[in-house]
Amino acid sequence: MNIKMNIDEILLFLDLMEKEKKTPLLDELKMMLYYLENYDEVKKFYKKVKENGYRLPNKFLAFSLVHFIENFEECIALKKEIYQNNTKRKYSDVFIQQILLSGTKEQAKETIEEAKGYGVLLKNTWADKYDSIREIIKRQEEWKRIIKEQLIENDNFPKIYNDFSRLKHKYFDNIPLEYIKGELSNRNQSQISVYTRSVFIKEYARRISNGVCQLCDKGAPFRDKHGNPFLEVHHIQYLSEGGSDSMENVVALCPNCHRRIHHLQLEADFKKVLEKAKINLNKNGE
Ligand SMILES: [Zn+2]
Ligand SMILES: [Zn+2]
């Protein structure tokens, strides 16, 4: 199964769980962390988790999240959080991360001393690895490799992703198209947050297409697990080229046409979908 969660989906997942009064499980947290792409996203994820009032298990903080902290002060803060009720456990990765983020060798040596106080014995050679983003990335990749192996072993990620899809569908099932359009067009007064916005845009494009590809005008080739026509959302002006994530700039395409439009980049296709996007704006919900 081809799964890839992006940051918007991850933040939405956390919010939908919160709505259902569920606390994310360790594997769910690991999966979300696995799909985060940079430190900025890690911070958004961590902030959302805290906003939702979850106290993350040390198992997750000290063995997973710590590898993705790329700022010295924030690493210290994480260490405090980990050790607030628990001084006996030996979390060596936390001190290693602190060393890798240290600005000087002196600071790194101090961390080795500090670690001893917690019963964590680190080799003095660690001090040579201060200020090493390369080593941090290496360790992040190693963590991801292990997670990926586990994923293949126990097939857990598809299950988690299914749970998320189910929550997402349940959420959108109760939201009429008009509401989505309203939220998306009242840019300033909108209640929806930045991340939900992009999820809303995707939902808008799929809803407005009514199950018909907006390039070849044929019905979706199959239905997804929830019984909805399978179409992909395409940004007419690519986001990477400054296109906006807005109603004027999206259409829903069948997988074939989606490939075609990216691959051939034909002017005629471009014009057609642009026209469709305009017409969409004036369409009303079923
Ligand atoms: Zn098509
Ligand atoms: Zn596309």
Automatic annotation (TrEMBL):
GO MF annotation: an example: zinc ion binding
InterPro entries: HNH, HNH_nuc
Species per Swiss-Prot/TrEMBL record: Peribacillus simplex
HNH nuclease domain: residues covered: 200-259
Pfam family, any one: HNH
Name of the protein in question: HNH endonuclease
Nuclease listed as a keyword: yes
Keywords tagged on the record: Endonuclease, Hydrolase, Nuclease
